[in-house]
Amino acid sequence: MELIWLEDFVALAETGNFSRAAENRHVTQPAFSRRVRALEDWVGAPLFDRATPGVTLTAAGQQFRTGADELIRRINQLRRESREAGGMEAATLRFAATHALSFTFFPQWMRELESRATLGPIRLISDSMQACEDLMLHGEAQFLLCHHHAAAPSRFGAQFRSQVVGQDALAPFVAPGPDGGPRWSLSDGADEIPYLAYSDESGLGRIIEAQRFTDRAQGLKVVFSARLAASLMTMARDGRGVAWLPVSLAENEVAQGRLVRAAGGDWEAPVDIRVFRPTARQSLAAEAFWSELAVR
Protein backbone atom coordinates (compact mmCIF):
# COMPACT_ATOMS: atom_id res chain seq x y z
CA MET A 1 0.00 0.00 0.00
CA GLU A 2 1.32 3.46 -0.90
CA LEU A 3 0.69 6.75 0.86
CA ILE A 4 -0.45 8.41 -2.38
CA TRP A 5 -3.28 5.87 -2.58
CA LEU A 6 -4.61 7.13 0.75
CA GLU A 7 -4.32 10.73 -0.41
CA ASP A 8 -6.14 9.84 -3.64
CA PHE A 9 -8.90 8.16 -1.63
CA VAL A 10 -9.44 11.27 0.51
CA ALA A 11 -9.48 13.53 -2.56
CA LEU A 12 -12.12 11.41 -4.28
CA ALA A 13 -14.20 11.03 -1.12
CA GLU A 14 -14.25 14.82 -0.72
CA THR A 15 -15.04 15.75 -4.33
CA GLY A 16 -17.20 12.79 -5.37
CA ASN A 17 -15.87 13.26 -8.90
CA PHE A 18 -12.98 11.42 -10.59
CA SER A 19 -11.96 14.21 -12.97
CA ARG A 20 -12.01 16.93 -10.28
CA ALA A 21 -10.14 14.74 -7.79
CA ALA A 22 -7.51 13.85 -10.41
CA GLU A 23 -7.08 17.55 -11.19
CA ASN A 24 -6.63 18.34 -7.50
CA ARG A 25 -4.02 15.59 -7.27
CA HIS A 26 -2.20 16.86 -10.41
CA VAL A 27 -2.47 13.54 -12.23
CA THR A 28 -4.33 12.30 -15.31
CA GLN A 29 -7.72 10.73 -14.70
CA PRO A 30 -6.70 7.27 -16.05
CA ALA A 31 -3.66 7.18 -13.75
CA PHE A 32 -5.77 8.40 -10.83
CA SER A 33 -8.40 5.72 -11.48
CA ARG A 34 -5.72 3.01 -11.55
CA ARG A 35 -4.38 4.14 -8.17
CA VAL A 36 -7.86 4.14 -6.62
CA ARG A 37 -8.44 0.64 -8.00
CA ALA A 38 -5.08 -0.48 -6.59
CA LEU A 39 -6.13 0.72 -3.14
CA GLU A 40 -9.43 -1.15 -3.41
CA ASP A 41 -7.55 -4.29 -4.41
CA TRP A 42 -5.28 -3.88 -1.37
CA VAL A 43 -8.25 -3.35 0.97
CA GLY A 44 -10.11 -6.26 -0.62
CA ALA A 45 -13.44 -4.44 -1.03
CA PRO A 46 -14.92 -1.71 -3.28
CA LEU A 47 -14.60 1.66 -1.56
CA PHE A 48 -16.64 3.70 -4.06
CA ASP A 49 -20.01 3.21 -5.74
CA ARG A 50 -19.44 4.26 -9.32
CA ALA A 51 -23.01 3.55 -10.47
CA THR A 52 -24.43 6.74 -8.96
CA PRO A 53 -24.32 10.10 -10.83
CA GLY A 54 -21.73 11.31 -8.32
CA VAL A 55 -19.17 8.88 -6.92
CA THR A 56 -20.19 7.89 -3.38
CA LEU A 57 -18.61 5.81 -0.65
CA THR A 58 -19.68 2.22 -0.12
CA ALA A 59 -20.13 0.88 3.40
CA ALA A 60 -16.51 -0.30 3.26
CA GLY A 61 -15.46 3.14 2.00
CA GLN A 62 -17.27 4.88 4.85
CA GLN A 63 -15.47 2.68 7.36
CA PHE A 64 -12.12 3.30 5.67
CA ARG A 65 -12.81 7.06 5.64
CA THR A 66 -13.01 7.18 9.44
CA GLY A 67 -9.27 6.65 9.78
CA ALA A 68 -7.75 7.68 6.45
CA ASP A 69 -7.13 11.37 7.26
CA GLU A 70 -5.57 10.60 10.63
CA LEU A 71 -3.43 7.82 9.16
CA ILE A 72 -2.02 10.16 6.49
CA ARG A 73 -1.28 12.82 9.08
CA ARG A 74 0.35 10.38 11.49
CA ILE A 75 2.56 8.79 8.81
CA ASN A 76 3.88 12.19 7.71
CA GLN A 77 4.31 13.35 11.28
CA LEU A 78 6.17 10.16 12.23
CA ARG A 79 8.51 10.62 9.27
CA ARG A 80 9.21 14.22 10.25
CA GLU A 81 9.72 13.37 13.94
CA SER A 82 12.11 10.57 12.99
CA ARG A 83 14.15 13.00 10.90
CA GLU A 84 14.27 15.43 13.80
CA ALA A 85 15.37 12.68 16.19
CA GLY A 86 18.08 11.66 13.74
CA GLY A 87 19.30 15.22 13.35
CA MET A 88 18.16 15.42 9.72
CA GLU A 89 15.70 18.26 10.30
CA ALA A 90 15.80 21.13 12.80
CA ALA A 91 13.01 21.50 15.36
CA THR A 92 11.33 24.22 13.34
CA LEU A 93 7.82 25.51 14.05
CA ARG A 94 5.85 24.86 10.88
CA PHE A 95 2.85 27.10 10.22
CA ALA A 96 0.25 27.13 7.49
CA ALA A 97 -1.66 30.41 7.26
CA THR A 98 -4.35 31.67 4.95
CA HIS A 99 -3.04 34.31 2.60
CA ALA A 100 -4.73 37.36 4.11
CA LEU A 101 -3.52 36.60 7.64
CA SER A 102 -0.01 35.71 6.54
CA PHE A 103 0.83 39.34 5.79
CA THR A 104 -1.57 41.18 8.11
CA PHE A 105 -1.93 39.37 11.44
CA PHE A 106 0.94 36.85 11.42
CA PRO A 107 3.98 39.21 11.54
CA GLN A 108 2.55 41.29 14.38
CA TRP A 109 1.47 38.15 16.25
CA MET A 110 4.99 36.69 15.98
CA ARG A 111 6.53 39.93 17.27
CA GLU A 112 4.20 39.86 20.26
CA LEU A 113 5.01 36.24 21.10
CA GLU A 114 8.75 36.69 20.59
CA SER A 115 8.72 39.59 23.04
CA ARG A 116 7.83 37.06 25.76
CA ALA A 117 9.54 33.85 24.66
CA THR A 118 12.18 32.48 22.32
CA LEU A 119 10.42 30.62 19.52
CA GLY A 120 13.34 29.41 17.41
CA PRO A 121 13.18 28.85 13.64
CA ILE A 122 9.77 29.36 11.98
CA ARG A 123 8.57 28.14 8.58
CA LEU A 124 5.42 29.69 7.11
CA ILE A 125 3.43 28.40 4.15
CA SER A 126 0.75 30.79 2.88
CA ASP A 127 -2.09 29.47 0.74
CA SER A 128 -5.86 29.05 0.46
CA MET A 129 -7.81 27.52 3.34
CA GLN A 130 -8.27 24.26 1.45
CA ALA A 131 -4.54 23.94 0.75
CA CYS A 132 -3.69 24.81 4.36
CA GLU A 133 -6.14 22.19 5.64
CA ASP A 134 -4.48 19.63 3.37
CA LEU A 135 -1.09 20.50 4.86
CA MET A 136 -2.46 19.93 8.35
CA LEU A 137 -4.30 16.74 7.48
CA HIS A 138 -1.15 15.37 5.84
CA GLY A 139 1.07 16.29 8.79
CA GLU A 140 3.11 18.84 6.82
CA ALA A 141 2.29 21.69 9.23
CA GLN A 142 1.99 21.76 13.01
CA PHE A 143 -0.29 24.80 13.22
CA LEU A 144 -2.87 26.51 11.03
CA LEU A 145 -3.73 30.19 11.40
CA CYS A 146 -7.06 31.09 9.82
CA HIS A 147 -10.30 33.03 10.09
CA HIS A 148 -13.04 30.95 11.67
CA HIS A 149 -16.80 31.19 12.13
CA ALA A 150 -18.93 28.60 13.93
CA ALA A 151 -21.45 28.55 11.07
CA ALA A 152 -18.74 27.49 8.61
CA PRO A 153 -16.74 24.68 10.23
CA SER A 154 -13.39 23.51 8.92
CA ARG A 155 -12.62 20.01 7.65
CA PHE A 156 -11.07 19.11 10.99
CA GLY A 157 -12.69 16.66 13.36
CA ALA A 158 -11.94 15.52 16.89
CA GLN A 159 -8.27 14.94 15.98
CA PHE A 160 -7.69 18.71 16.07
CA ARG A 161 -8.24 21.50 18.57
CA SER A 162 -7.86 25.26 18.43
CA GLN A 163 -7.40 28.52 20.33
CA VAL A 164 -8.68 32.00 19.56
CA VAL A 165 -5.77 34.44 19.12
CA GLY A 166 -7.51 37.44 17.59
CA GLN A 167 -10.67 38.98 16.17
CA ASP A 168 -11.60 40.29 12.74
CA ALA A 169 -14.69 40.82 10.61
CA LEU A 170 -15.78 40.32 7.00
CA ALA A 171 -17.50 43.35 5.50
CA PRO A 172 -18.57 44.41 1.97
CA PHE A 173 -16.24 46.92 0.34
CA VAL A 174 -16.42 48.77 -2.95
CA ALA A 175 -14.65 51.61 -4.73
CA PRO A 176 -16.01 55.08 -3.98
CA GLY A 177 -18.19 56.89 -6.49
CA PRO A 178 -17.77 60.53 -7.60
CA ASP A 179 -19.44 61.78 -4.42
CA GLY A 180 -17.18 59.71 -2.17
CA GLY A 181 -19.95 57.29 -1.25
CA PRO A 182 -20.06 53.65 -2.35
CA ARG A 183 -20.23 53.11 -6.10
CA TRP A 184 -22.74 50.36 -5.37
CA SER A 185 -24.71 50.11 -2.14
CA LEU A 186 -26.31 46.92 -0.88
CA SER A 187 -28.86 49.02 0.97
CA ASP A 188 -30.29 50.48 -2.24
CA GLY A 189 -31.85 47.20 -3.41
CA ALA A 190 -30.44 47.63 -6.93
CA ASP A 191 -31.49 45.09 -9.54
CA GLU A 192 -27.90 44.21 -10.43
CA ILE A 193 -24.68 44.72 -8.49
CA PRO A 194 -21.39 43.19 -9.75
CA TYR A 195 -20.17 40.71 -7.16
CA LEU A 196 -16.55 39.65 -6.61
CA ALA A 197 -16.80 36.17 -5.10
CA TYR A 198 -14.47 33.67 -3.46
CA SER A 199 -13.80 30.38 -5.21
CA ASP A 200 -14.39 27.00 -3.56
CA GLU A 201 -10.87 26.75 -2.10
CA SER A 202 -11.42 29.79 0.10
CA GLY A 203 -12.31 29.54 3.78
CA LEU A 204 -13.62 33.12 3.68
CA GLY A 205 -15.98 32.03 0.92
CA ARG A 206 -17.38 29.32 3.20
CA ILE A 207 -18.09 31.93 5.87
CA ILE A 208 -19.81 34.32 3.43
CA GLU A 209 -21.91 31.46 2.08
CA ALA A 210 -22.90 30.38 5.59
CA GLN A 211 -24.01 33.94 6.39
CA ARG A 212 -26.30 33.88 3.31
CA PHE A 213 -25.49 37.49 2.43
CA THR A 214 -25.96 36.75 -1.25
CA ASP A 215 -29.49 35.51 -0.58
CA ARG A 216 -30.33 38.79 1.13
CA ALA A 217 -28.94 40.85 -1.74
CA GLN A 218 -30.78 39.44 -4.73
CA GLY A 219 -29.11 41.89 -7.11
CA LEU A 220 -25.60 40.46 -6.65
CA LYS A 221 -24.30 38.95 -9.89
CA VAL A 222 -20.94 37.16 -9.90
CA VAL A 223 -18.58 38.81 -12.39
CA PHE A 224 -15.28 37.52 -11.01
CA SER A 225 -14.07 34.88 -8.56
CA ALA A 226 -10.72 34.10 -6.95
CA ARG A 227 -9.42 32.12 -3.99
CA LEU A 228 -7.44 34.98 -2.39
CA ALA A 229 -8.91 38.01 -0.64
CA ALA A 230 -6.06 40.17 -1.94
CA SER A 231 -7.13 39.48 -5.52
CA LEU A 232 -10.72 40.45 -4.77
CA MET A 233 -9.54 43.58 -2.99
CA THR A 234 -7.58 44.70 -6.04
CA MET A 235 -10.61 44.18 -8.26
CA ALA A 236 -12.87 46.05 -5.83
CA ARG A 237 -10.41 48.94 -5.64
CA ASP A 238 -10.45 49.11 -9.45
CA GLY A 239 -14.22 49.55 -9.42
CA ARG A 240 -15.12 46.07 -10.65
CA GLY A 241 -17.72 45.31 -7.96
CA VAL A 242 -18.46 44.50 -4.32
CA ALA A 243 -16.27 42.11 -2.29
CA TRP A 244 -16.52 40.87 1.29
CA LEU A 245 -13.03 41.39 2.71
CA PRO A 246 -11.38 41.01 6.12
CA VAL A 247 -11.49 44.43 7.75
CA SER A 248 -7.85 43.96 8.81
CA LEU A 249 -6.86 43.55 5.15
CA ALA A 250 -8.91 46.46 3.80
CA GLU A 251 -8.15 49.04 6.48
CA ASN A 252 -5.19 50.64 4.67
CA GLU A 253 -7.19 50.96 1.44
CA VAL A 254 -10.05 52.54 3.40
CA ALA A 255 -7.66 54.97 5.07
CA GLN A 256 -6.32 55.98 1.64
CA GLY A 257 -9.86 56.53 0.33
CA ARG A 258 -9.61 53.74 -2.26
CA LEU A 259 -12.32 51.57 -0.68
CA VAL A 260 -15.51 52.32 1.25
CA ARG A 261 -18.12 50.14 2.91
CA ALA A 262 -20.95 49.04 0.65
CA ALA A 263 -23.42 48.60 3.54
CA GLY A 264 -23.85 48.98 7.29
CA GLY A 265 -22.94 46.71 10.15
CA ASP A 266 -25.82 44.29 9.59
CA TRP A 267 -23.96 43.09 6.46
CA GLU A 268 -20.81 42.36 8.49
CA ALA A 269 -19.74 38.97 9.88
CA PRO A 270 -17.55 39.00 13.02
CA VAL A 271 -14.97 36.19 12.87
CA ASP A 272 -12.35 34.69 15.15
CA ILE A 273 -8.72 34.32 14.23
CA ARG A 274 -7.85 30.82 15.41
CA VAL A 275 -4.82 28.56 15.58
CA PHE A 276 -5.53 24.87 14.94
CA ARG A 277 -3.26 21.99 15.89
CA PRO A 278 -3.48 18.18 16.02
CA THR A 279 -4.69 16.74 19.31
CA ALA A 280 -1.83 14.23 19.24
CA ARG A 281 1.40 15.30 20.94
CA GLN A 282 3.89 17.07 18.66
CA SER A 283 7.57 18.03 18.94
CA LEU A 284 8.97 19.63 22.09
CA ALA A 285 9.22 22.99 20.30
CA ALA A 286 5.62 22.78 19.09
CA GLU A 287 4.31 21.85 22.54
CA ALA A 288 6.28 24.69 24.13
CA PHE A 289 4.75 27.12 21.65
CA TRP A 290 1.25 25.84 22.41
CA SER A 291 1.84 26.23 26.14
CA GLU A 292 2.93 29.82 25.53
CA LEU A 293 -0.39 30.48 23.72
CA ALA A 294 -2.31 29.06 26.66
CA VAL A 295 -0.96 31.69 29.05
CA ARG A 296 -1.82 34.70 26.87
Give an overview of the whole structure.
This protein has 296 residues and is α/β, with parallel strands linked by helices. The protein folds into 3 domains: 3-68, Arc Repressor Mutant, subunit A (Orthogonal Bundle), CATH 1.10.10.10; 85-165 and 272-294, 3-Layer(aba) Sandwich (D-Maltodextrin-Binding Protein, domain 2); 168-271, D-Maltodextrin-Binding Protein, domain 2 (3-Layer(aba) Sandwich), CATH 3.40.190. The protein has 12 helices and 11 strands. It has helices at residues 3-15, 18-24, 29-43, 59-85, 99-102, 105-114, 129-137, 203-211, 213-216, 229-237, 247-255, 284-294; strands at residues 48-49, 56-57, 93-98, 122-127, 143-148, 160-174, 193-198, 220-226, 243-246, 260-261, 269-278. The strands form 3 sheets. Strands 3, 4, 5, 6, 9, 10 and 11 form a 7-stranded mixed sheet that branches. Strands 1-2 form a two-stranded antiparallel ribbon. A hairpin with a 6-residue loop joins strand 1 (48-49) and strand 2 (56-57). Helix 1 (3-15) packs across helix 3, helix 1 crosses helix 4 (59-85) and helix 2 (18-24) crosses helix 3. The chain is flat, with a radius of gyration of 22 Å. The model has no long low-confidence stretch (mean pLDDT 89).
